[in-house]
Write a structure and sequence with these properties.
This protein has helices at residues 3-12, 15-18, 48-51, 70-74, 76-92, 98-117, 120-138, 147-160, 194-209, 218-230, 257-273, 278-286, 321-338, 341-357, 378-395, 398-412; strands at 27-33, 36-42, 172-175, 182-185, 189-192, 233-235, 238-240, 242-243, 254-255, 299-301, 307-309, 417-421, 424-426, 431-437, 441-449, 452-461, 464-470, 476-486, 494-504. The chain is built from 16 helices and 19 strands. Helix 5 runs antiparallel to helix 6 and helix 15 packs antiparallel against helix 16. 43% of the residues lie in helices and 21% in strands. Among the domains are: 16-198, no CATH class; 417-504, Immunoglobulins (Immunoglobulin-like, Sandwich), CATH 2.60.40.10. The protein is an alpha+beta fold. The strands form six sheets. Strands 2-1-3-4-5 form a five-stranded mixed β-sheet. It is elongated and about 100 Å long. Strand 10 (299-301) and strand 11 form a beta hairpin.
Length: 507
């Protein structure tokens, strides 16, 4: 038996325990019902940290979201004709029914009328959704399989924006009679967010197999996954859950390995909980995404040379470690639950790349968000640590277990600080008082002599060596005090060191 197989078998016993981490923490959702929208706390709505799209790939540039309405202003007539042609073609080929074609045309015409009557942000947001639909049609990508999701998005935005409430950016929104969660992305309107919905499905599953404090709602889970099936599309011959708005330079429709794998995981768990193998079939139809190269699929050659699963299908050189690990976890769990050999093979093909990439994300005092990129925010550092801990519990791989422990220490240990010198300086000659530091911190230096302060300065330093410039004005013994406060965790983690420097007269 290979070590890989032994690792898979060792992880089987912990899958139910890992299905959810309780008790559940409620997140806010904007519920839209017959009496209008109202805010509520819901333990089955995933927290933002683990279910967001992440940082926009093109940092420092104007958001691509804001550009969506431009298509409508430039060529609304061409866009309208493109939508009509796509509907006519799909109906003529038998890809959609005549009734569906009529319903979609009615939704589109109503959206345009409502858009014309709205002003300000409401008009811009609905206009962005209309423009995105038209842009997809102009690029001949308004296929029959994408129509259910795109026209549902159009319908919900048309219903929502004439109302009084303007949501906060990244608010989660749900509508009565549905389990689906929409996300509000300023400049792009309300959008289906596949990852958020599959995370919700996993929370619903967890509430049924473990005491999380949330109500077990099997029929709600069945409804949610049914809605996710209905809004999936065919992409490169496989079932996909796509994103239908611009993000970080990516034009819709695009997809994410993290969302796709979390969907596979959710369907596998539901098949077991609901005792219905039908859900496994939907997951199997989604697996080819992980062996199809981007931009159609999410497979890419990683920075170490192995297979990497991409967070964004349109960004083949952006390697985000937390998303990669979550993709592996989703495939692993599905293979464990169902015994699916394809999922097991896909996991085994990419896992060595993740193990090889991981050390390059360890700065010695924190983690990096992407390979060769910026450091993680506190939220993404914690998310990465949780994924590492999950992999450690599943496969007992030393690399993941030790990294999870180190990353935990980075958030709980104060900085190590040492005063390096010099021990002796010369009066009226500039010097640098040197120190070593183990993690990013604000460092304060105070130098006094005979109760009088010579300098008192504070500056930010990264891990490694640092120094402050100082010119002693008289000879004698000076007292030096250093204090460091680490800056990432928000905790009051402080370190202090002290020493003496002797200042001697110049010759």
């Amino acid at each position: 038996m290979s070590q890989q197989t032994r690792n898979f078998l060792a992880g089987a016993a912990v899958l139910l325990a890992l299905a959810s981490v309780g008790p559940a923490e409620a997140a806010e959702v904007l519920r839209v019902g017959p009496d209008g929208p109202h805010r509520a706390q819901d333990p089955l709505v995933p927290q933002p940290a683990g279910s967001s799209l992440g940082r926009e790939p093109r940092s420092g540039r104007p958001s691509a979201l804001a550009s969506a309405p431009k298509g409508k202003r430039k060529r609304p007539t061409r866009g309208a004709r493109a939508v009509s042609r796509a509907l006519t073609s799909a109906a003529r080929r038998g890809r959609i029914s005549r009734a569906s074609s009529i319903r979609y045309r009615t939704l589109y015409a109503r959206a345009r009328r409502v858009r014309a009557a709205l002003e300000g942000v409401r008009g811009r947001e609905l206009g962005a959704v209309v423009a995105t639909l038209e842009s997809i049609a102009l690029r001949r990508r308004l296929t029959a399989s994408r129509m259910p999701a795109l026209f549902l998005i159009l319908r919900r935005n048309t219903e929502f924006w004439p109302g009084r409430v303007i949501p906060r950016n990244r608010d989660r929104v749900t509508f009565s009679g549905s389990e689906l969660l929409f996300g509000y992305y300023a400049g792009a309107g309300l959008q289906l967010q596949p990852l958020v919905n599959f995370k919700k499905a996993n929370l619903m599953h967890g509430a049924c197999v473990k005491d999380t404090g949330a109500q077990c709602r099997r029929e709600g889970l069945r409804m949610l996954l049914g809605e996710m099936v209905a809004t999936s599309s065919r992409r490169g011959g496989f079932r996909a859950w796509e994103y239908f708005f611009r993000f970080g330079g990516g034009a819709p429709p695009w997809m994410s390995a993290m969302a796709q794998a979390t969907g596979v995981q959710a369907f596998g768990r539901a098949s077991q909980l609901l005792e219905d193998p039908t859900w496994e079939g939907y997951a199997r139809e989604a697996l080819p995404a992980f062996e199809t190269p981007s931009p159609t699929g999410v497979a890419a050659r990683g920075p170490i040379g192995g297979t990497h699963f991409l967070q964004y299908s349109f960004a083949p050189r952006l390697f985000i470690i937390n998303a990669f690990l979550q993709s592996l976890i989703g495939l692993y769990d599905y293979a464990q639950i169902t015994g699916d050999s394809t999922a097991r093979r896909l996991y085994a093909a990419a896992e060595p790349e993740a193990r090889a990439e991981l050390p390059r994300h360890d700065t010695g005092d924190w983690s990096t968000y992407s390979f060769g990129g910026r450091e993680s925010t506190r939220e993404y550092h914690e998310l990465l640590r949780e994924f590492l801990r999950s992999l450690c519990n599943r496969v007992r791989e030393r690399t993941y277990c030790e990294a999870a422990k180190r990353f935990r220490l980075y958030t709980t240990e104060a900085a190590q600080l040492e005063l390096l010198g010099p021990a002796t300086v010369t009066e009226d000659e500039p010097v640098r008082v040197r120190f070593s530091l183990s993690k990013l911190s604000a460092v304060q230096i105070t130098i006094t002599r005979a109760g009088r302060t010579a300098i008192d300065r504070t500056a930010t330093f990264r891990r490694g060596g640092g120094s402050f410039a100082w010119t002693p004005r008289t000879s004698g013994i000076y007292k030096v005090r250093l204090a460091a406060k680490e800056l990432r965790t928000g905790l009051e983690l402080r370190t202090r060191r002290s020493g003496e420097i002797e200042s001697v007269p110049a010759d």
